[in-house]
Amino acid sequence: MVPSSYYVFLSAFVFSIGLYGVLTRTNAVVILMCVELMLNAGNLNLVAFAAHHGGVAGIAGQTFVLFVLAVAAAEVAVGLGVFILVYRQHGNVDVRKPRLMRW
Asked: Which residues pair with 94 in a beta bridge?
């Protein structure tokens, strides 16, 4: 069996990649993908510790992962809808121009 520390290090690495992408990119779709990387890093931790502890704690961790995946799917659907609307009106989806969201 693989030690839990390997999963924690992998999760930290994936989270770091996502955080770097969120802080350095200007394209909103790429930022959304990096946020998804960060959520998946958290899910990896939850599943790793659920497998490590087992029992009721294991089932609770896996259930929480399912809820996080459902919320992430809803977030992507709403976010892409907003991005498509902004792209149709302005021709680009640049997060450096927050004035686009003002009415």
From this structure: 27
Q: What is the pTM of this model?
A: 0.82
- CA 69 from chain center: how many Å? 9
The CA angle 93-101-91, to the nearest 5 degrees, is 30
Torsion of CA 33, 66, 44, 12, to 10 degrees: 50
Q: What angle do CA 35, 13, 61 make, to 5 degrees?
A: 70
Can you tell me whether residue 101 is helix, strand or coil? helix
Radius of gyration of the chain (CA): 17
Taking the C-alpha atoms of residue 15 and residue 37, their distance in angstroms, rounded to an integer, is 6
pLDDT grade for 99, boundaries at 50, 70 and 90: low
User: Tens of pLDDT along 39-85?
Assistant: 999 999 988 888 888 777 778 888 889 999 999 999 899 988 988 88
